Amino acid sequence: MTEQRVVLVPEGLAGERVDTAIARMFGLSRTRAADLIVQGHVQVDGDGVGKSDRVHAGSMLDVTIPAETDPLAVVPEIVEGIKIIHDDESIVVIDKPVGVAVHPSPGWSGPTVVGHLAGAGFRISTSGASERKGIVQRLDVGTSGVMVICKSEHAYSVLKNAFRNRTVDKTYHALVQGHPDPLEGTIDAPIGRHPKADYKFAVMPDGKHSVTHYKLLEAHRFASLLEVHLETGRTHQIRVHMAALKHPCVGDLTYGADPVLARRVGLERQWLHAVRLGFEHPDTGDYVTYESAYPDDLAAALEIIRDAH
Q1: Is residue 249 within 8 Å of residue 175, measured between CB atoms?
Q2: Among the three residues 96, 122, 151, which one is the final residue of a domain in this structure?
């Protein structure tokens, strides 16, 4: 719902900045008032204004106030590229493409997994915060691959515990720059927020316990294809740990990858893919495994690396 307000500026606000006048007359915050001006929703006597312009008594203030959207609201929409790998009464397993977040968050306005499932008519478990219902694991927006979402309360509690107790087998493939030494190993290094950039993480002495196991699958001139098993599930864990070893994921410019190599292989994101997920099914108790093939951009980049001499 959009609200349209047309009022005359009273004597008491003569000489005030436009954003201040709007804030006081309509009970809005100064920030919200300034945003309305910047977005072109405010006119004074029929003309557009800047937020620091002054108002005069008797001027006609015409303000359009769009309804504020909740950044955490789940918007049902079919998202192109999300594939359903498995679906039953208690879980749905999907293949998540790059560029899709798992759930809404304040800084994200793009497509989400939970929005797609809502749009496709899936009924998801009601456990967890409203925007994260049924979510027991996450993949970064820039990471593709297999993930599970719970549809029943029972499945949610069982799998939440399985992830917490590290009994879920999470297998990733990562194409990293150079050749790790040793070619098979374990990285045990705590991860915390980066001290200088709040969108990044880093190995920090006071960070959370984080363990990554890796082994070499293929060695090439410029890069190595690794199989990675996560023992813990920290945000950006593989990316941070590989960067700490000075072998960042190819294409991962956030964590120090070579931009020249990224361009050469045609990547605009990190070469990292969740290839396999294994766990005990919450209803049957049987061990189940689900897999996801490399998406086109990663497959093409890997072929370029394989052919490089």
Answers
A1: yes
A2: 151
User: Is this structure's pTM higher than 0.90?
Assistant: no
Average pLDDT over residues 163-173: 94
- Asked if residue 96 belongs to a domain, the reply is yes
Give the separation between CA 258 and CA 263, rounded to whole angstroms.
9
Note the pLDDT tens digit of each residue in 86-131. Answer: 999 999 999 999 999 999 887 788 899 999 999 999 988 767 677 7
Bridge partners of 153?
Answer: none
Instruction: For residue 252, indicate whether it is catalytic.
Output: no
- Answer yes or no: is 31 within a domain: yes
Residue 299: domain span: 166-309
The catalytically annotated residue of 19, 95, 140, 297 is 140
Which CATH number belongs to the domain containing residue 126 in this structure? 3.30.2350.10
Contacts of 198 (CB under 8 A, 6+ apart): none
Cα-based distances in Å from 92 to 127, 145, 279, 281, 287: 15, 14, 13, 11, 15
Residues 105, 50 share a domain: no
**What single DSSP character describes residue 81?**
T
Reference 146, options 297, 291, 294, 279; nearest CA is 291
